[in-house]
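User: Thanks for the earlier help. One more: PAS domain-containing protein. Can you show the sequence and predicted structure together?

Assistant: Of course, both are below.
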Amino acid sequence: MRRVCGWCKDNLDPELGHEADAPVTHGICSSCALKITTGTSRSAREMLDLVEEPVFLLGEDGVLHAVNRSGCRLVGKDADSIADQLLGDVFECVNAGLPGGCGASIHCSMCTMRTTLLETLKTGKGTSCLPATKNINAPDGEREVHFLISTEKVDGKILMRIEAVEPAEQANN
């Protein structure tokens, strides 16, 4: 799999070459990251909206700083209603409703999304298409959802991109 910048399309892993038929995942190059995190005529939200897949920009405390339109559609909420919330609350993780909230239960230590975000923040090393499962509260009750997530550290924040989503019943077929 090759990684390209979701904004300028530059190859992020030049040592891996440019295999035209290799599957592509997206990250962000340092030039584009600077444009997002410094004063530009575009807001972070406008920059994130340029990426087709759902993208979430999270602070080191796990709090949502920005989300693109695709991310809003994925969680079924508008950006203003989920701003400054923890990721588990944004996704309505069943464990976020336990005492202490998101990040405080024994289940949170096994959450792939959480551990991946923390590891990317700590090491600066991004991930690509990592499988993650989350039990969420849905209108029709609790359900298990499978994700493929990619992360990238940008100026002390984490960009998390959702590459694919499928309900558990589809993932097992």
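User: Great, one quick takeaway?

Assistant: Strands lie at 2-5, 24-27, 55-58, 64-67, 127-138, 141-154, 157-167.
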